[in-house]
Amino acid sequence: MDRVEMLFTAKEVEEQVDRLAEEILEAYNNQVPTVIAVLKGSFMFTADLLRRLPGIYAVDFIRAASYGDGTETSCHVSISLWPTVKVAGQKVLLVDDIADSGLTLKCLVERLKKEGANQVDVCVLLDKPSRRKVEFIPRFVGFTIPNLFVVGYGIDYAEKYRNLPYIGVLKED
Ligand code: 5GP
Ligand code: MG
């Protein structure tokens, strides 16, 4: 059996989401751009964040996984769901659960720009800067954490633990 050790309580997560929403509204002068959320891990975070971001704006989803060893400079990311929303000429806020190696998000930003997006900003709930394999700095960050394997609040291990209202560290015993 695996155990989950509390890292951030539901209340702490809520406080960071409140703070992020304020930061985002201020950064865009209350005009939220097109939001594209990266499935699946960001579903709960995105739902909570967007409820705090009023206005009329498009919301769509993307699904991607990075592969390769990450030592190459070219993008190795397989995209299994591409948004149908208009990207060309748009400002995009890309929302994800975790920035780890940075490979997936860096590639997605590149792809969206290639499709003609004129600005792509990234918002992540969790950032693990010590794990970067490529240079990548998300514009909006909930929590900066060390190299831990986390679950909960949408984030899974083998599709489980997504329902937890808090963020925990998975311990194998
Ligand atoms: P990367 O930044 O390496 O391209 O990929 C980030 C993705 O790897 C995240 O969106 C998430 O799906 C997965 N990931 C990274 N760190 C963790 C973690 O601690 N726990 C879980 N469950 N997934 C993680
Ligand atoms: Mg992900």
Ions and ligands? guanosine-5'-monophosphate, magnesium ion
The level of helicity is 10-25%
**How large a portion of the residues is in β-strands, by DSSP E?**
25-35%
Q: Rough shape?
A: globular
The CATH top-level class label: Alpha Beta
Main-sheet strand order equals: 4-3-2-5-6-7
Poorly predicted spans = none
Decide which structural class fits the backbone: alpha/beta
Separation of termini?
A: 6 Å
Radius of gyration: 16 Å
Total strand count, please? 9
The helix-strand sequence is: EHEHEEEHEEEE
Estimate the mean pLDDT confidence.
Answer: 94
Provide an overview of this structure.
The structure is a single chain. The protein has 173 residues and is an alpha/beta fold. Helices cover 23% and strands 33% of the residues. It has one domain (11-145): 3-Layer(aba) Sandwich (Rossmann fold). The chain is built from 3 helices and 9 strands. It has a 6-stranded mixed beta sheet. Strand 5, helix 3 and strand 6 form a beta-alpha-beta unit. The longest helix is centred in the N-terminal third of the chain and has 18 residues, at 10-27. The chain binds guanosine-5'-monophosphate and magnesium ion. Magnesium ion (MG) is lined by residues 38, 41, 96-97.
